[in-house]
Amino acid sequence: MRKPKNKFYELEHVAITALSSEAKGIAKLDGKVIFVDNALDGDIVNIKARKGRKNYDTGEIVSFIEKSNKRIEPYCAHYEFCGGCKIQHLSYENQLEWKTQVLKDALDRIGKVVYPKITPILGCEETRFYRNKLDYAASNSRWLTVAEINDKDTPIDRNGIGFHKAGMFDKVIDIDTCYHMPEPANAIKNFIRKTAKEISLPFFDIRNQEGNLRNIMIRNTSIGEWMVCISFFEWNNTAQELMQRIKNEFPSITALLYTENSKGNDTIYDLDIQVFMGRDYIVEHLNSLKFKVGPKSFFQTNSKQCIKLYETVKEMAGFHGDELLYDLYCGVGSIGIFMSQSVKKVVGIELVEAAINDAYENVAMNDIQNCKFYASDMRTLFNQDFIKKHGKPDVIITDPPRAGMHPDVIQQLLDLACEKIVYVSCNPHTLANELNLLCEKYVITKIRPVDMFPQTLHLETIAILELKK
Fold it and tell me: Is the pTM of the predicted complex or chain greater than 0.90?
C-alpha cells in the first residue's frame, strides 16, 4: 500500500517481523522501516503511522489482527502511559532472549569484534518487587489521560506523585501501585500524597518553581530496613506536620529524612540531609558483607541480583588470591569489597567524594584491611604516577556509567597492558564500542549478560579481556 503525502497515514494488516534495541516493533514497507510502539515480532496489526526521517517512520497500534505468541497481558494499570516497564507485554523468557540478541547485535554491528559464544543470560528469580530504591516526583500539574480531559463533569485534581512522563519534564504520572518495589513502598507514597492534600501542603510547580512538596525517595534493604527522604522547597510548619504524620503512621521506618531544596534542579547530592527520626542510613547485606547505604549512596538497586552479578564477576575473573586488583568507577566500593577476600589488595577510584567516604565506612564495617579508595576524576588520577605509587595491577575491573569511559582512560588501559580486564557494563552499545578499541591489545575470552531489571530495557554484561600473547 502506497503512503499518501500527508504527515500521518494508516496501514492495515501490517506484519511485525522483529524487535529493535529500543523494544519497538519493526515493520518494513516499500524498503522503509516503520518502528511501532508496543508491537512485538509476530504481531499483525493495523497502525497509525507518522512520517519520520528518510529511512524510517514511526507508528502506533490501532488494533490487532493477530497477537504474537510472545505477548502477555501487562499487570500494571500505569503500563500504557508510564514507560518505566517498556517490555512488560513481553513474556520474561522472551525478554531474556531479546536482551541477549540486543547484546549480540551490538557486538556484531557496533563492536565488530571477535568474541566467544555468549554464556546464557543470568535471569532474575523475582521479576516484580525487586528494586531497593525509587524516586518519586510531586507535581501540581500531573499528566491527564484523554478520558480525564474529555470528562467535563468531574472536577480534576491536578496534584500527583509519581514518575515524569517520557519527554515531559513538567508532567508527572500519578502512580497508585508500582510493582518495582515491595510494600510498604506504595503505602508510604500514597499516604504522603493523601496527607499532603489533607494539610494543604502545596505540591511543587517545576515551571514556576513554586509549591513545597517536591520529591520522595524510598529505599529499603534485604534485612527489612527502610529509608524515606523527602525534599521540600522550604522547611516550614506544614512540612514538619507531614513528617510527623509519617512518623506516627510508619514508626518502623529506620531512617526518616528530609532536605530543603530551592534550587532549579532536583539533585540532592549538594544538599544537607536532616534526620527527622532514626538513623541517617540503612544497612544492606550482600552475603556476609554489610554495606552502609545513605540517601546519597550509589548502590546497585537490585540487591538479590547484585549478589549473583558479583559472584559471576568473581567466577569469570578466576582470581588466584595473589592479585593486585584495580576497581575503576568503584562507587561505594561494593565490587572491590566483594572481591577483597579473593585477591591480595584492592585499589579503587571514583569521582564522587561522598561515595569514597561510604567506601571507607563499608571496609571499616566489615573489618577489611586490604582495600584503598581514592576520590578523583578518573582521567586525571589514573595515570603512570598513580600506577608507580600503587603498583601495576594484575586485574582491572571497570564498571563505568552508561556513557562509558573517557578516551584518555581507554588509552591508559591500553598503555598499561595489564593481564586481564573485567568490564562490567550497563550499556551494550557503549560496551561494544569500547571493546572495539580495547581489542587492539586484548582478546575477549568470556562474555555473559545479566538481567538486573526485568520488564525494562536495561542490561548488564560482564566481559573478560585478556592480553594478547
Answer: yes
Residue 5 has pLDDT above 60, yes or no: no
Q: How far is CA 258 from the centre of its chain?
A: 23
Q: Grid coordinates standing for 339?
A: 572481591
Q: CA 294, CA 219: separation in Å to the nearest integer?
A: 9
Contact 163, 172 (CB under 8 A): yes
320 and 221 housed in the same domain: no
| pLDDT at residue 151, rounded to an integer | 82
Residue 437 confidence (pLDDT):
98
> Tens of pLDDT along 328-368?
999 999 999 999 999 999 999 999 898 999 999 999 999 99
Same domain (yes/no): 145, 282: yes
Q: Are 158 and 250 members of one domain?
A: yes
Q: Is residue 51 part of a domain?
A: yes
Pairwise CA distance, residues 164 & 136, whole Å: 8
Residue 87 lies inside a defined structural domain of this protein: no
Answer left, alpha or beta for residue 245, where phi above 0 means left and psi between -120 and 50 means alpha.
alpha
Q: Within this chain, do residues 385 and 424 fall inside the same structural domain, yes or no?
A: yes
Task: Compute the half-sphere exposure of residue 424: CA atoms within 13 Å on the CB side of its CA.
Answer: 23
Identify the domain boundary among 233, 255, 286. Answer: 286
Across the beta sheet with 255-260, the strand order is 172-174, 160-164, 133-139, 213-220, 226-232, 255-260, 274-278
Distance CA 280, CA 358 (A): 13
Q: Which residues lie closer than 8 Å to 246 by C-beta, 6 or more apart?
A: 188, 191, 192, 195, 228, 253, 256
Q: HSE-up of 156 (CA within 13 Å, CB side)?
A: 15
Q: How many domains in the chain?
A: 3
Closest CA to 173 of 211, 215, 204, 144: 144
The span from the CA of 251 to the CA of 135, in Å, is: 21
Catalytic residue IDs: 426
* End position of a domain, from candidates 262, 286, 310: 286
pLDDT for 385 beyond 80: yes
Q: Are 328 and 378 in contact (CB under 8 A)?
A: yes
pLDDT at 146: 80
Q: What is the DSSP letter of 319?
A: -
Q: Which of 165-174, 177-186, 403-412 has the lowest mean pLDDT?
A: 165-174
Domain harbouring 273, CATH code: 2.40.50.1070
Residue pLDDT, tens place only, 37-71: 999 999 999 999 998 877 899 999 999 999 999 99
